[in-house]
């Protein structure tokens, strides 16, 4: 399903099943997570959906340090070219809900007026300070009142722009019931939380993950919550083990982890599908969604030093079989029958059921 082409279908799925919708905004690693508000949660009047924007880079080049060092462009156009265009889609979705599901929302507000420019992006998450994740051109298009949650280095960079009113550093995940950074959605026991999972071995937190947990159900018998693990460069699979030891059970709906194994000379950048297999098994995610795999147009010195190996799931399972000298590709694939793999193109959406 492509969000822009089928807004009514997207709204119908969200409202019918009461489940999150994940949308790939470009072919790389910009995402929109749309959550239906819990029935008992505080919300702006007339709003039914809560929109989380992750690592937005919509157009233009991205440069790391100097253009002679590294400069990249999207090869596949982003599904929306501007934040204003994205907001048009989000306001249209709210208007559809207001007209077709009026009993589930409060009376309409400016967010539903076609001529209005009201912001419907509720939260921004930035995983890294690099400009393909923390893109100043795109981020400056977002309303300054939008709260931003970023890793420490990215937060410092964003604060230096003096654009956003609230920039929060994401706290590490400790496994306790209320670990991570609480969002200003409701109260100190908010239904939405953000945490960083990383290892002390990775001093720059390059191979880390963002954990987004939420409870959009009215109640759960065991007090459990749902979550999404976003790791654009990959995280050492073993670093996800604390998820299973958390005091509050976390059901991981989706693992966002790329397939491509990328090295810069001898330095490992993106960990690729082989690591993702282990990460999926440890996190026990229901969905595995590839991310950060766009082969971009590149220039500069880095372009000559990059080495990319493109994996498929089948290839990585075969490699795993050779490494461990046991099992076979058929049984390994059978073990993944309950795992939904998705390689979403730019603009495509997936309902996380």
Can you lay out the helices and strands and say which pair or pack?
Layout: H1 7-17, E1 21-24, E2 31-36, E3 49-54, E4 62-63, E5 71-73, H2 83-100, E6 123-126, H3 136-139, E7 148-150, H4 152-161, E8 167-169, E9 181-182, E10 192-197, E11 209-214, E12 225-230, E13 250-256, E14 261-264, E15 267-270, H5 272-283, E16 287-289, E17 297-299, H6 301-305, E18 306-309, H7 313-324, H8 329-335, E19 340-342, E20 349-351
Parallel strand pairs: 3-6, 6-7, 7-8, 12-13, 13-16, 16-19
Antiparallel strand pairs: 1-2, 1-20, 2-3, 4-5, 5-17, 9-10, 10-11, 11-12, 14-15, 14-18
Walkthrough of the structure:
The protein is an alpha/beta fold. 22% of the residues lie in helices and 23% in strands. It contains 8 helices and 20 strands. The strands form 4 sheets. A 7-stranded mixed beta sheet has the order 8-7-6-3-2-1-20, with helices on one face. Strand 4 and strand 5 form a beta hairpin. Helix 1 crosses helix 2.
Can you describe this structure in just a few lines?
This protein is an alpha/beta fold.
Throw out a few tags for this protein.
single chain; 353 residues; 7-stranded mixed β-sheet
Structural class: alpha/beta
Largest sheet: 7 strands, mixed
Judging from the principal axes of the Cα atoms, what is the shape? globular
Low-confidence parts, pLDDT < 50 over ≥5 residues? Answer: 185-189
Which band does the percent of strand residues land in?
15-25%
Q: What is the number of helices?
A: 8
**What is Rg?**
20 Å
Query: What is the string of helix and strand elements?
Result: HEEEEEHEHEHEEEEEEEEHEEHEHHEE
Instruction: Let me know the number of strands.
Output: 20
How would you state the average pLDDT, rounded?
88
Helix content: 10-25%
Strand order of the largest sheet: 8-7-6-3-2-1-20
| First-residue to last-residue Cα separation | 15 Å
